[in-house]
Design a protein that fits this description.
The structure holds two protein chains of two kinds.
Chain A lengths: L17 H6 L4 H9 L2 H11 L11 H6 L10 E6 L8 H8 L1 H15 L3 E6 L4 H16 L15 E6 L9 H8 L23 E5 H13 L1 H6 L1 E2 L2 E2 L1 E8 L5 E6 L2 E2 H6 L13 E5 L8 E2 H5 L8 E2 L1 H4 L3 H4 L7 E6 L4 H15 L5 H18 L7 H12 L7 H25 L1 H6 L19
Helix pairs in contact in A: 2-6, 2-9, 3-6, 5-6, 6-9, 15-16, 15-18, 16-17, 16-18, 17-18
Chain B lengths: L14 H11 L11 H12 L4 H11 L3 H10 L11 E6 L2 H5 L2 H12 L12 E6 L11 E3 L4 E3 L4 H12 L5
Helix pairs in contact in B: 1-2, 2-3, 3-4
Classes of the chains: A alpha/beta, B alpha+beta.
Chain lengths: ~450, ~170
Amino acid sequence: MGRKLLLEHINVPGINTFDVYRSKGGYASVEKAIKTMSPEAIVEEVKKSGLRGRGGAGFPTGMKWSFLAKPEGVERYLVCNADESEPGTFKDRYLMTYIPHLLIEGMIVASFALGAKTSYIYVRGEMMPQIRILERAIAEAKAKGFLGKNILGSGYDLELYVQPGGGAYICGEETALLESLEGKRGNPRIKPPFPAIAGLYGCPTVVNNVESIAAVVPIINEGGDEYAKLGIGRSTGTKLISAGGNVKKPGVYEIDLGLPVEEFLYSDEYCGGIANGKRLKAVVAGGSSVPILPANLFLKTINNEPRLMSYESLSDGGFVSGTMMGSGGFIAYDEDQCIVRNTWNFTRFYHHESCGQCSPCREGTGWMEKVLHRLEHGHGKMSDMDLLVDVSKKIEGNTICPLGDAAAWPVASAIRHFRDEFEWHVTHGAEAVTRNFGIAHYADPLPKPEVLA
Amino acid sequence: MLRVEDTQVSVEFSPELLDKFADVVTRYPAGKQKSALLPILHYVQAEFGWVSPQAMDKVAAYLDILPIEVYEVATFYTMYLLKPSGKYVLEVCRTGPCGVVGADKIMDHIEQTLGVPEGEVTTDGLFSWRGVECLAACGYGPVLQIGPEYTFYENLTNASVDKLIGDLKAGKKE
């Protein structure tokens, strides 16, 4: 049983209100930070904690903060990335819905550390209910003197606003998000300059994921060193995992990094195994963008070691036999799921969400979608698999932002690990429309599923 | 292809709506009022049910930006409806994890029940529906949302969809 740092009080009735949240020790980190710590000391604690960005890239948060330029007389901004849209990921929605003050508290501490006087939480527009929840929480915190002018008598002023997006996956990319916040199309910017130098309105800006900001609260309360004791190796602390697909108990779980994937998937404390007594076929471990793995490679690395829920273990084996932690969007596929159909579905998503700025992504995602559509519907050719790999390679690394890579990896990995299923769709075109390929050999060896009595 | 429908209907912004606009503009530094564009377009859509060219022109004038700056944003972001739609737009998530748990069947059922294809409006003007990309609720799928408040309906079944549509018809839910 891991320690809960973020979700410890999630089930306390009324924890979404200021008073209950405060009675459970809420906003203690604001008092500690503003009254007893310098901004530099806060950045130092976050560095010591080893916290890595929870939005998907896994870049050390403390280091990102220390890159922030601080020219005299120029505003600095903190922007929270709550544009959660990576298929498979719904942890930020959960956190904002049930414990919004944790995010507000983290925003205040982080803004103070970075010297931001105005900060924004950019929430995807579809989360209108969560936007209302956050606005209510901000009003409460302001009324209690934790936001606005002269916070807790310290002389520090901070205004915090919630900005709705308009429905665009690409705005989860930090420079696209900043463009969107400036009222423009969400076209990612060419880097450098990085936002730390020229971000929102051309000013130095830090963009952090909801969960990263929330994690600042326990880091300040308990100290960076204490936080770093949790987890394993360079994967410190706890992580929210969104579990979906064919698991028995879908939901958001806070795990200590380093938990064996088998325990996460099969123990009753977490996913509880595969739904309906079926067998596991494949897993997408970190959101749709990361490589899909067949069950056998997911549960054990190529060296036959148990795979762990950590940045390093999930990427063990590189893209040949590993995957990535990503945003923690965990999707399990049972034996009845069709990999070709799933890959087509994801590629349709990336084609739909490509901003259109770079031709490899704009055109490549469209072609991949068309080819996958014909494979799924029984009109594919044997040469299609090589064609798809070729197109995916031409997208990867050739675009301004990582959406290109994110579109290429699921296709390349699906063909790498499930080529025989794609080929079956060509050789058994008519059959492929009416039934699925099944589990084949990917699942061996597998833990025995619970047999329904 | 995206096409903005032009119904030539003139648009007036009420004082209440203009108050909301003014409140949004205060969130940004002086001269950066363009940042208010996305929130304001949400208010416009909530008020009129869609974002018409006439409304976009008035928003441009209000924010002191070019009309094209509004058009390019309204056509880029998928939440903005560019033609008149049903009073209730059922937006069903069709991506990955929701697909795994039966989103396609839910969309088929909605199409049959409402009797209109994706994007069209029922003859009583009450409903339209469309498939949308990941709504970040993958553990609760299949899901759909209904604007302008974007209320969420989770773990959909044919029966729960029937009940929802029935309730909306009877005016039991807003």
